[in-house]
Here is the input.
Amino acid sequence: MELYAASYLLPISSPPIPGGAVAIDNGHIVETGTLDELRSRHGGPVHDFPGCAILPGLVNAHTHLELTHFPSWKIRKGIDYSPRTYIDWIIQVIKIRRALTPQELELSVREGLRICLEAGTTAIGEIVTDRSLLPLYAGSSFTGRLFFEAIGHDPVRCAELISDIDTALSAFSGGAFLPGLSPHAPHTVSEHLHRDVNRLAGERNVPRMIHLAESREESDFFFNSSGRIAEILYPHVRWEPYLPAPRRTTATAWLDGLGVLNGPISAVHCVHLTPADAEILAKRGVGVVLCPRSNDKLDVGRAPAALLKKLGIPLALGTDSLASNDSLSLWDEMRYLINLFPGVFTPSEVLAMTTLGSARNLALADKIGSLDKGKRADLLVMKLPDQYGSGEGLYEALIHSAELLHVIPCGKHPASPQAVV
Here is the structure.
């Protein structure tokens, strides 16, 4: 048994505790309260951090760590150019991804894990395209959800993919991670494959995550099967035989018509939602992962965050990848979100989105995201500034001016100031 104490303990699920502490045993939380209360009930060493706050490790709800080395790959592979549109960027990613070796992918994932941990992230919702990389995640100090990606239109290949994924789920060995499924996007997954992924998710009792309404090109494509997806992307990946007739609808409404917006599922980006689309997501209980910096870098617009909040849609934050972002820091993402949507979210709401909110979107709220009894003991120790207010002032100070001193994954206090992968 060990006690960790600070000037403030932020459980996230309940109000801050001045002079708070958390009791940890075997990597899990036993109890929270004031240091005096916990000392009276528990023995063991006390790690005290005056002038600091202790809060849960951050949960990055949407990552592609396989692409961490993307900025350097562009140069080394001779594909270093600035895409003019979202589809141009997609083509660039495809070209670079096809040229990578297994060793390059492994080094990229390892670097991504290291960067995330140094920034206080202890759990991720990772999209996995290469399942041979699973041992890297399983051997790390992270937890979270590994979403096996499904993509394609060819019926024979899609059937083989579903069979392969089903086998992989049966033999899943992800360490502290749990599995999930990711039908990539409405326009990159066939109608039959969408339904098969939904069926398999139900049979295996795993959540899903889908990229949805990220670009204007997707909206154009679902309305009349035209635009750059039809003219450039489909020919590039040889999907011309699967070009659909004009649907005269939105991607969200189309998915709802397929009956696949049911069960635990999160949608990422959701930039080009109509009000009716947002109502569908709210009605179906679909969570939304916002990635504002990625959306800005790809110049696709911004999500209707105020509407999503008003409808009570569960919200989370993700950084996406370094192919479409400048860092994997959720602190950078939080600050950007607050500046992008002034007055929409309070600092405490934003911090909750990157902890318990993200855990909920990953269907892991019973395991991580807050400092509650029985949960995994992922802790951050933050040095508070000399001056900060009460109430929201504490959360504002944490996001904008506090210093991250220690990352303690699963109750393992490192000897150095930062934890290691």
Notes: The mean pLDDT is 95.
